[in-house]
Design a protein that fits this description.
Blueprint: H1 20-42, H2 52-59, H3 66-84, H4 96-105, H5 108-121, E1 126-132, E2 138-144, E3 155-161, H6 168-171, H7 175-185, H8 189-194
Antiparallel strand pairs: 1-2, 1-3
């Protein structure tokens, strides 16, 4: 049984950058629906006793399992997103992630530019990610819909949700403003440091 995880912050803790009303819908409705759907699809399924990560890896790329993959991956992606942000965060990182960004991505300003380009340029729904690639280097990538780096053998470090439900109540069609606000005020560098 897959459970909806608790948010790692109070629902109003991200204001004014993300409103509690957005979290009512994004977490309370969208994320919860992915959990409910995943559990329904796992009834009598061979993967029903597996972890979320094992379910994602076990269904990735299988056209017959696309419904389960999409829902399970969205549960995982959203849980990762809630941990990728936190109140009174963002801005320049410290610790080993700062060194890795300098070494692998050409510095913080270049990283921000690359992440903004990926997040704003994702056509339709999806995600922007900071990942560790198979060579052990940090890289920015984007994925479409429910796709996740886990399905490609890559290690997620941070992510940004760019589905419209993540920002539309607060920013309407201004996705670039939402992305900038997350980067400057909410990116959880402590979480990123724990992932490398």
């Amino acid at each position: 049984m897959i459970a909806l995880p608790e948010l790692p912050f109070a629902k109003d803790a991200l204001e004014p950058h993300i409103s509690s009303k957005t979290l009512d819908f994004h977490y309370g409705k969208h994320h919860n629906a992915y959990v409910v759907n995943t559990n329904k699809l796992l009834e009598n399924h061979a993967l029903k006793d597996k972890t979320l990560e094992e379910i994602i890896k076990g269904t990735a790329g299988d056209p017959a399992q696309v419904g389960l993959f999409n829902n399970a991956a969205q549960v995982w992606n959203h849980t990762f997103y809630w941990n990728s942000i936190k109140p009174e965060a963002g801005g320049k990182p410290s610790g080993k992630i700062a060194e890795r960004i300098n070494d692998d991505l050409g510095g913080y300003d270049k990283f921000v530019e690359t992440l903004q380009t990926a997040a704003v340029g994702q056509f339709g729904s999806g995600w922007a990610w900071l990942i560790e690639n198979k060579n052990g280097k940090l890289e920015v990538m984007k994925t479409f819909n429910a796709d996740t780096p886990l399905a490609h053998g890559l290690k997620p470090v941070l992510n940004l949700d760019v589905w419209e439900h993540a920002y539309y109540l607060d920013y309407q069609n201004r996705r670039p403003d939402y992305v900038t606000s997350i980067i400057e005020n909410l990116l959880n560098w402590d979480f990123a440091n724990s992932n490398i």
